[in-house]
Amino acid sequence: MKLWLTLGAVLLAAPALAQDNALQPSPIWEDLRSSIIGVDVDPPLDAVALDLDAPPRAHDAAIVPVRLTQGAEAPPLAALTLVVDGNPAPVAAEYDFGPSLMPLDFEVRLRVDSYSDVRAIATQADGARVMAGRFVKAAGGCSAPAGKDMAAVEATMGQMRWRSTPDEAGDRAIGTLMIRHPNFSGLQRDQVTLLNIPAHFIDRLEVRQGEDLLFRMSAGISVSEDPVFRFHYNPNGQPVDVRVEDTDGNIWDESFPAERAEVNKS
User: Fold this and answer.
1) What is the CATH number of the domain that holds 13?
2) For residue 217, what are the domain limits?
3) For the whole model, what pTM was predicted?
4) Across the 266 residues of the chain, what is the mean pLDDT of every consecutive 10-residue run?
């Protein structure tokens, strides 16, 4: 119970913050834009079609909460790319979304390595693009020490927790998925040996309910340790199946029964 209260507090903090941290001019993004999205002009900003909430100043640069939302009548999204301009590997994650997640309300925690714009570029179902973002004051997130020692990492890696509860309106569900994984960035040091820890992170994640895709993620080093994903979705009564792959070739599969509000797989 304490774990879920902690996760809820971290994730729910983002939308309550005063959002005066608009995107700032970014020479880094000017250089990256064409290689990441293939065009030389920014997609339009439209907070109804897509909005991004993030704290103006991060409490912890290694676990910065980011929430992506749409208005109720917004065009559905097919894919989305999360970018942290100032990170060593700026593309944090790329997502494909299933229809059950529309309109989007999706949260993830990222590492932010320096004062930077955090932006999302989404592709709508008709191929049009839209962008959203915030400027986040944070530093050192990609090299911050891991939260557990190596023995604890080995003992818990790949464990998952899943919870599904009705949303406030009662017509959708809120799913929370936590995965135990250090997501080593390659920029951290072992606190005992002081040697560099090789990069080792989740690079593929797929979440389905039955045959229907909820979301698919391809990620880099910027997703936080022990990643947590919180999202609204339309339940179809089928089990929720999760497949996780990491850069060391490990694969974990779990299936969570649909009829239970909370399942602990540890």
Assistant:
1) 2.60.40.2470
2) 2-265
3) 0.89
4) 44 49 96 96 97 97 98 96 98 98 98 98 96 98 87 92 91 95 94 87 98 98 98 95 98 87 39
